Amino acid sequence: MNEIKTVKSTDELKRLFDFLSITFYEDAAEYGEHYFAMSERYEEMKKQFEADKDFLMYIESNDKIVAGITGKNMTDDRITIGVLAVDKFYRRKGLAKQLVLEFENRCRIRNIKHISLGARFRACRFYQSLDYRFSLMIQVYDFANIDDIRNNKYDFIEKASYQGDAYGFIIYKVPDINEEYIGYFEKNVKTAQVQYIFDKYIE
Length: 203
Known about the structure:
Blueprint: E1 5-6, H1 10-31, H2 39-51, E2 56-61, E3 64-72, E4 78-86, H3 95-109, E5 114-119, H4 124-129, E6 133-141, H5 146-150, E7 157-163, E8 167-173, H6 179-188, E9 193-201
Parallel strand pairs: 4-5
Antiparallel strand pairs: 1-2, 2-3, 3-4, 5-9, 6-8, 6-9, 7-8
């Protein structure tokens, strides 16, 4: 079992952020995915650092961070996993599972009952294996709206929706984790960004 360390200083926080952003950038390049700038994640991490450092964790090897997880939007009984990443040379060694299970354990200690998160498609099976429930979220921006989403070929059950002046989303209950759904909405709905979201109630 690898030692899980908790961020204790702003220097450690920046080290963890640098590891996470570099890992996501390299993965995006390798898998042909869009790289989303991580500056917003850093602001979330700083807020979590002030609220409760115990949900900012990492694992090191030879004084180098090789895996990390962050929390965000913590309330009395809910929290969101912000970012989870493992260095590509340390994958398939159980580090991600170890971090998520410790994250859940710390939730139990604080009586946090619900964890939510969003995931790239290739991470979906991992969260499903840990008994997280999945839904499909389609977001639209600018001139597009949620009626553009609703005009689709599927018969999905709508779980939640929102439409503001220049942003909206629909969350659907879907039968399975299928990359076809992502491709369909991103191809047929202007400005759409699509991802699977997950949640779990902690006992």
